[in-house]
UniProtKB/TrEMBL annotation:
The protein's name: Putative aliphatic sulfonates-binding protein
Gene Ontology CC, one term: membrane
Pfam families associated with the record: NMT1_2
Family classification: Belongs to the bacterial solute-binding protein SsuA/TauA family.
Keyword Transport: yes
Highest taxon of source: Bacteria
Record key words, sorted: Signal, Transport
Function: Part of a binding-protein-dependent transport system for aliphatic sulfonates. Putative binding protein.
Residue ranges of domain Solute-binding protein family 3/N-terminal in the record: 44-259
Gene Ontology molecular functions: ATPase-coupled transmembrane transporter activity
């Protein structure tokens, strides 16, 4: 429709109304998708998540799973990082959760009984190695001998391993300081450490508030894959529930992509993060539909495991494929349709 004959004020009003109508249209389509038929499910479903788990947060805020699994007791448990989440999963306190690439490797090496059940595409721009703006460190090679904060066993752990390798440094050339994200940021700001390896949304929050310099992101270093893991008893008893979860998680991702402003408001209201922080970390996040692990993803994850074993950071070698849930494609499609 041509608006050139209207006053600037009228044109602005029509643009706003058009944008609002488009947003409501997207929300309406998502709401209709949420109306998918309820299915027989578990009596309880305990889900572990972090603030960066966009798809899970949207499902939580929209109450989707409560409608898909009527009668099930849905519990949502937040964790500061993947290692803590997988520890809860391994001791029977969780059924399902999302982590980065490194936590499952450490869990498998420790003999934890869990399964990779799904994956999202890589997010290489969503993690970084940071230094303060006035830091003398300019290159990755300058990390030699320096104190670097990181969450042990997290995706940032592997990012740092790869960064040191690229710089021609050994793990023994640095002083790792193992801290959870909140404690690491405090140490970083008071200059108790020289650098910090971290992921979104902590990366985005720090970037906007104290404007550090980025020595490296995951690009060309680490794909920063995201994995859904589940307790083996849950997988054995409720494979159809996993098919429903993947379907709804992928719908949630579509909502995050197509109704970006609404998704930012939803995530910000839940997490307490500033909308600007949420906007920044979602911008770095590619489309993230959820599916079964493919051979390439398993091979990427095996490289993570091999790197940690080579450095002596895990006690034994592990074969990632041993704990990958791999239903036949036709069977999984049947579960999704049922």
């Amino acid at each position: 429709m041509a608006y050139h004959h209207l006053s600037p004020e009228r044109r602005q009003i029509l643009r706003v109304l058009g944008t609002t109508a488009f947003s409501w249209s997207l929300a309406g389509r998502y709401a209709r998708a949420q109306g998918a038929a309820p299915v027989p499910g578990p009596e309880q479903l305990r889900i572990g998540y972090q603030k960066s788990a966009v798809n899970l947060v949207i499902l939580k805020q929209q109450g989707v799973l409560e409608r898909r699994f009527p009668g099930a007791k849905i519990q949502w448990l937040e964790f500061p990082a993947g290692p803590q989440l997988l520890e809860a999963l391994s001791v029977g306190s969780l059924d399902f959760g999302l982590t980065g690439d490194s936590p499952p490797v450490f869990a498998q090496a420790a003999g934890k009984d869990l399964l990779y059940v799904g994956a999202e595409p890589p997010k290489p721009d969503s993690s970084a190695i940071l230094v303060l703006a006035d830091s003398p460190l300019q290159r990755l090679a300058d990390l030699k001998g320096k104190r670097i904060a990181l969450q042990k066993g997290s995706s940032a752990h592997y990012l740092l391993v790869r960064a040191l390798d690229k710089a021609g440094l050994a793990w023994a050339d640095i002083q790792p300081v193992y801290l959870a994200p909140a404690d690491a940021r405090a140490a970083f700001e008071r200059k108790s450490v020289d650098a910090w390896a971290i992921w979104d949304p902590f990366y985005a929050a720090t970037e906007l508030t104290i404007q550090p310099r980025v020595l490296a992101t995951g690009r060309d270093l680490s794909g920063n894959n995201s994995f859904y893991l589940a307790a083996r008893p849950f997988v054995d008893k409720h494979p159809q529930a996993l098919a429903v979860l993947f379907d709804e998680l992928t719908r949630a991702d579509q909502f995050a992509q197509d109704a970006r402003k609404d998704a930012i408001k939803l995530i910000a209201s839940f997490s307490g993060l500033d909308a600007g922080v949420v906007s920044l970390f979602i911008q770095r996040r590619p489309r993230s539909p959820v599916g079964l692990l493919n051979p390439r993803t398993v091979a990427d994850q095996q490289r993570v495991a091999d790197a940690f074993f080579k450095l002596g950071l895990i006690p034994r070698p592990v074969t990632v494929a041993d704990i990958v849930w791999a239903p036949k494609a036709a069977e999984f499609a049947r579960l999704a349709r049922t």
